[in-house]
Amino acid sequence: MPATDTAWIVLGRSGDDVVAVDLDGTGAEIERLSIPRSEIVAWIRDRERAAPVRWVWHDTPVWYDAVLDAGATVERAHDLRLAHAILRDAAAVRDDAGLRTATAWDAAAAAAAVDDALFDLDAPEASVPEGVDEALAEFARQRAALAASERGGALRLLIAAESAGALLAAELRAAGLPWDADVHDGILREMLGERGGALPARIEERAAEVRRILGDPLASLDSQPKLLRALHRAGLLVETTSRWELRRHDHPVVEPLIDYKRLMRLYSANGWAWLAEWVRDGRFRPVYVPAGVVTGRWASSGGGALQIPRQLRAAVRADPSWRLIVADVAQLEPRILAAMAGDLALARAAAGRDLYEGIVAQGTLGSRAEAKVALLGAMYGATSGDGGRLVPRLRRAFPRAMALVDDAARVGEDGGVVSTLLGRTSPAPSGAWSRLQADATDVDASDSDASRARRYARDRGRFTRNFVVQGTAAEWALAWLADLRGRLARLPEVGEADAAPRSGPAFARRPHVAFFLHDEIIVHTPSVHAEAAADAVREAAASAGRLLFGDFPIDFPLDLKIASSAEKS
DNA sequence: CGGCGCGGCGCG
DNA sequence: AAAGCGCGCCGCGCCG
Q1: Do residues A403 and A530 both lie within one domain?
Q2: Residue A520 approaches strand B within 7 Å at CB
Q3: Residue A221 contacts by C-beta under 8 Å, 6 or more apart in sequence?
Q4: Which of A138, A252, A337, A541 has its CA 20 to 30 A from that of A561?
């Protein structure tokens, strides 16, 4: 009978078996069990069912995918690899515990290595250690580092949220995003025309039109250098072939060429080949990579999960007798900035639904469009254009918020590191960057050395300026997801008649998150629970705001709809 | 032939 | 051709 005071169970391999070590809240070992690998999934399921604990493992998908396949879920985890990456870089961690010298834990995602190893035998990627003794040692180092840190509380929160995100990323893949291949096919046919020749009919037509106008029946439209030369021969003296530059010219080839590029992009990135490769049994199952971005945002690998064009949103369709909750946060990053900086004036502008209109209402800027480019310019470090021109107005109106991003930029330019609200820290500058800066101060440095160094310094300043905001926004989003996961899991299951079996056994009968993209989520839910699920989405957003910012007066209003399709209205 | 950098463009 | 952050994927064209 397991001890009731188990706080964590550390899992790891030992020979052919798995060893599970119960630890109490102080980290002391309570008991140790050896379990054959063939029984580990059932064992995890039974332990979780008896009393949820926090599962400590080297890499979430390696352990959790099999649990999900078996129809079970777990509530909480501690992902050693993700936690290591946070603590290794954290400015608030002193390395008394030897965390930074445990370099085996710096390896790339083990799950990716598992996938690749099947096909790529000569290049097995390094993976983090799987053994139980290594897991116990790393977990001890991490707890010691947290205990010694003055920001241990915030970092614990961040690691818990990051680990919950890792659970969710695995769950998103297991559940899949409901995707109607017929709707997708219909959109492709309508936009691209019938498939027949080498390219769909509409693309062929547009290409022919471009070549006719250029007077060049063999012009290559897909090779940038060749297209550029063809445009020059036809008298269109552009420097690039980008849509942005083309649009500024008044030439008959511009409209059909831009249209050709638009259609070709849809065809090559999300056409029938994508559909055949990525949509199976009515589900799109992308690979999410939690913390794949240095700021803590998620990345994706394969399927372009984070780049699905809005044109295809209509293909995201709920199963029969199910609904989608589609929700995104209005102006997440400026709200995050206001709250982090404790800027009451910006918070006041954010009090309505539309922060940009709030800035206009305060008289700071003249139009919503101006307010938007100015604020984006402040967060991205614009120096010219409308953004750069308008940022000084914001500095006068919102000095605290602007000081926060300006300070972050200055620290970055000087080669320092910056941290998010919960303590995720930006990477240190590369050796090459530091050498460049050092060389530029030499007495014999040339003007061009100096100006190049300044340019690189500014580049890094824009990165750290944005890091604090983007990274803290990612923390808010993780908190939102983690809280929502818990709330949805407590909603009742539906009967067999209303199940959505393609979602996989763990999710076929209850509301679950089906998509996540920085500040937006889609929940797939039985219709009978749609209102309750929508409430959970809203309550989780409010809860995330309180968790990060306490009672600071900022809210995170959602654009939320309950519908059969994810199409933007 | 595969690997890689680049231009271009989709997303936030 | 972005100005102004963070990504992934495509096709091309060069390289070894």
Answers
A1: no
A2: yes
A3: A207, A210, A211, A227, A257, A260, A264
A4: A337
